[in-house]
Amino acid sequence: METGGGLNEAKRWVEELVGRAARVASGAELSKLREAAGDRGSPLSSLYRSMKAIDPALRPEVGRQLQELRSQLDSALEAASAAVLAQEVEATLEAERDDVGGYLCRSRYEGIGSLHLITMTRMELEDIFVALGYAVTEGPEVESEWNNFEALNIPKFHPARASQDSFFLDFGDEESTLLRTHTSPVQIRLMQAQKPPIYAIAPGRVYRRDTPDARHTPAFHQIEALVVDEGISFANLKATIESFTSAYFGPSIKARLRPAYFPFTEPSAEFEITCTICGGSGCRTCSGTGWIELGGSGMVHPKVFEAVGIDPEVYSGFAFGFGIDRLAQMRAGLPDMRVLPENDLRILAQFRGRR
Ligand code: DAH
Question: What value does the mean pLDDT of the chain take?
């Protein structure tokens, strides 16, 4: 019977294909191999077709061996296809690695993160004030209307109270709450919590219903400073503002005060510094004036002392507040403040390692 020869030939053929499958290195090679395996003229197919002619006594055994060869071939092809797929995935990942966003992948390898520019700025300013003898404190972002407005002598009709300027959370009959619109309510908390002398700053996030633009974002950061002691004068306020601005911006930057109005200070002043972009000669950023406004300041209003039970006959004090984001923006030379909350690593990474 000639089945012996046919079976051997089929075995050799399957062996050869299994060997090729183990070495397959590309999708194209795999397709060729599949084609060869499916060839209707192959020794395996011929053997299937000649089954009817085989001695019925031998047929079951030959059939079993044929099945085994078939499944050897199938599993070799399956393994080859899995291997090719894995190679392709690997190659695609390798080729597209930088397209995903070069900085993300690099940071995975370098493993370097960094504090946000605003955090670094806040910490640097805290250090400056700590060196001047100030304590660092904090207040909550959800504040009572009384702390945020009333106690600061901001009357009911003041525009800052209007809902279009503030994020009110709860209009209670007794007491409304809102996202604080400034860090000044921490002044109230400080004076309620401790007796003078008080030398403290309060950094933190504040919220206003501002439409974002190059100089405004609806959530931003401020630092409030409060000093209450015996014999504190306006000259102390001016000297303090000069010290901290030159510590942060460098000695070539000068500070000046201009009369202003704030309900919780009297007298009040806005403080400005030499424009960091043009150095004072006048440019677009400073609208040609050579000066940039940084924040508000003044002597603590007697009404505020009254609200917290401090005797204005014994004590006097000053307060000022300014935006951390604005300071960061000016020293870093960022034309647009909106990049700060956007957290684009291509921008933030430039300030990495400063702290
Ligand atoms: N809270 C004011 C604001 O956000 C800034 C300010 C003005 C703070 C005068 C003060 C101050 O402490 O004395 O616009």
Answer: 89
